[in-house]
Structures are given as structure tokens and as C-alpha cells.
From TrEMBL:
Keywords: Magnesium, Transferase. Pathway: Cofactor biosynthesis; coenzyme F420 biosynthesis. It is an enzyme of class 2 (transferase). This is Phosphoenolpyruvate transferase. NCBIfam families: F420_cofD (TIGR01819). Belongs to the CofD family. The gene is fbiA.
């Protein structure tokens, strides 16, 4: 398979991609990255998911944390705190800030985000073509309870980082998506792909947000290539993060078969579940999606590579069928 396209969020997408490269050493890998988590803070444009993919594949990631830079320091954060600058809940590291300065400067000079991302990747050499899902501004908002008994929407970062996903979420809104356009190269990559993969990224606020950009869902559904996804849930719970909470917010149960049915056979040809969820296989297959149970824990690079190999194998099976 020469051309592989992956729809990726942050850590789940990035770690999977790090396994995919050695699993398909000759392939041209295009990543369509989620930008719904992007936020403007301290005058800077921050793209957490694009940066997690770029740093992870480029060797600059803080490995245990899964986001931000290795060997990071926080002098700027301390100085901002000394001025009483809000918000204090989003901690940017000094090295990371340099990335955001370059990005913000280039955007200010008129370059689209896709060109800026390409420029940043010239340094990191991630070994994949990293495209933002759109050059337009899309922001994922989460609907939560308001103090007056009503409802209010907060930016996804506020829900996740400040509130730690500890308050009920009643809805997820990709603000701006309806008028956004796919970034240059996105639709072409999907049309020309030999295989399309959904890594174990968050199905709602990562892959769901990418699919909410008009034209992308249709391009995945209409692509000639087999589409194979890997479950981010194992035994009914996310491996890390809040996928269960944001699934509940859109009325989808936190189990792997429900996630597969949520994507549906229009999008998915194949779905990988963990061995713990082997009993979900018949249910997923009944929904018209080919399903296998294989180890899905990315405990190290080899494990991620084995998962990528299984995904490519299932894609081959779909193609042959
Ligand atoms: P985020 O933007 O940083 O939240 O990253 P993603 O959306 O790309 O990935 C988050 C999802 O990855 C979560 O729902 C996790 O359950 C899932 N995830 C993280 N590590 C693993 C793993 O080792 N195996 C599987 N199957 N899923 C994982
Ligand atoms: Ca994210």
C-alpha cells in the first residue's frame, strides 16, 4: 500500500503513527490532523494536536506526558503568573512557546495554517505529510451546566484542562465547522489513498471533529480505499483521556461496538478491538463492518507497529473480499 491517509488527534494518533512508519516503510503517509482543540492564549495560536503529532514523530515529545516538549522549562509561565495574567490553568513551556511564536508570526504575515505547519515540520521531519483538517478557524466547544441553572459552552481546553472533564458534558459543538473548508490537499489525499486509517484517537473530539468539516466525511465515505479503524476503548474505558464522557455527551455508549456503529459501515470497512472485547466482534460484523480482536495497547513502539500491521492486514482483507 503506497498511499496511507490517517485522521489523527493528539496522543493516540501520534503514537499510532510512530508505529505505522516502520510497519509501512515504503508508504507515503498523509496525516489529516484535528485543529478543533486549537486555542488563542497570551497572543499565541496554539495547535495542541498538530504539535503532538509533529513532536512525537520528530523526536521532541515529552514522552511520559504525551504532549509538549521534552526537557522543558517554565520560566515564561512563572513570569506571567507574577503579573497575574490569566488563565493560569494552561501551562505553556518555554521551548513549546517558540513553536507558537513562529506559528503566530507566520499566520500574522498571512500564511495559511497548512503552510505554517509545513514550515514547522521542515525542522521536525516527522516522516509524514502533516495537513491540518482545515485552514479555517474551528473550535470545539463543550456544553456544560451554568451556575444559573441553564447551560453554557466552554472551549474544549477549558473543559479538559481547567475542569478536568469532571463536570457533566451535554453536547459537543465544533464551532465554525459548518463554514470551514478542508485544507489544500486533504480531499485529494483521501481520493487517491490506497488505505485510510482511523487510529485509536478520540472518536468525538478528534476524529469526529475532522469529519465535521464539510466534504471530509463524504470523501472518506466515497473513497475507493478500504477504511480501517482501531478502538480507543478497551474493556469499555478509554486507555487515557475522556472519550467515555464526550461519547456520553453525544449519546453514544462507551463500548467499542457502539463506537464502531457510531462511525457506521458508510465510513468503516474494518474495526480492530482489543482481546478483552472479543465478544463485540459478532455485533460489529452484524453492523456490516469486518472486525478482529488483536492487542491494542501501545505500551511501546513495537506494540504500536504490530497494531499498525494488523490494521493494514485487515485493510488488505477488505480489499480482497
Ligand atoms: P488527544 O487529542 O491527545 O486526546 O489524542 P487522540 O484523540 O489522538 O487519542 C486519545 C485517545 O487515544 C483516547 O480515547 C485513548 O483511549 C486512546 N489511546 C491512548 N493510548 C492508547 C493505546 O495504547 N491503545 C488504544 N487502543 N487507545 C489508546
Ligand atoms: Ca486533542
Amino acid at each position: 500500500m503506497r498511499r496511507i491517509v490517517v485522521l489523527a488527534g493528539g496522543i493516540g494518533g501520534a503514537r499510532f503513527l510512530r508505529g505505522l512508519r516502520p510497519a509501512a516503510p515504503d508508504a507515503e503517509i498523509t496525516v489529516i490532523g484535528n485543529t478543533g482543540d486549537d486555542i488563542h492564549l497570551f497572543g499565541l495560536k496554539i495547535c495542541p494536536d498538530l504539535d503532538t503529532v509533529m513532536y512525537t514523530l520528530g523526536g521532541g515529545i515529552h514522552e511520559e506526558q504525551g504532549w509538549g516538549r521534552a526537557d522543558e522549562s517554565f520560566a515564561v509561565r512563572e513570569e506571567l503568573a507574577a503579573y497575574g495574567v490569566e488563565p493560569t490553568w494552561f501551562g505553556l513551556g518555554d521551548r513549546d512557546i517558540a513553536t507558537h511564536i513562529v506559528r503566530t508570526q507566520m499566520l500574522g504575515a498571512g500564511y495559511p495554517l497548512s503552510a505554517v505547519t509545513e514550515a514547522l515540520c521542515a525542522r521536525w521531519q516527522p516522516g509524514v505529510k502533516l495537513l491540518p483538517m482545515t485552514d479555517d478557524r474551528v473550535e470545539t466547544h463543550v456544553v456544560i451546566d451554568a451556575p444559573d441553572g441553564g447551560r453554557r459552552a466552554v472551549h474544549f481546553q477549558e473543559y479538559w484542562v481547567r475542569l478536568r472533564a469532571a463536570v457533566p458534558a451535554h453536547g459537543i459543538v465544533p464551532v465554525g465547522a459548518e463554514t470551514a473548508a478542508p485544507a489544500p490537499g486533504v480531499l485529494q489525499a483521501l481520493a487517491e489513498a490506497d488505505v485510510i486509517l482511523f487510529p485509536p484517537s478520540n472518536p468525538v473530539v478528534s476524529i469526529g471533529t475532522i469529519l465535521s468539516v464539510p466534504g471530509i466525511r463524504e470523501a472518506v465515505a466515497g473513497a475507493a480505499a478500504p477504511v480501517v479503524g482501531l478502538s480507543p476503548l478497551i474493556g469499555g474505558a478509554p486507555v487515557r483521556g475522556m472519550a467515555d464522557k464526550v461519547l456520553a455527551a453525544i449519546g453514544v455508549a462507551a463500548d467499542t461496538a457502539a463506537v464502531a456503529r457510531h462511525y457506521g459501515p458508510e465510513l468503516l470497512d474494518g474495526w480492530l478491538v482489543a482481546p478483552q472485547d472479543a465478544d463485540a466482534v459478532p455485533e460489529v460484523e452484524k453492523a456490516g463492518i469486518r472486525c478482529r480482536a488483536v492487542p491494542l495497547l501501545m505500551s511501546d513502539r513495537q506494540a504500536a507497529t504490530a497494531m499498525a500491521g494488523q490494521a493494514l492486514e485487515l485493510a488488505e482483507e477488505v480489499r480482497a473480499a
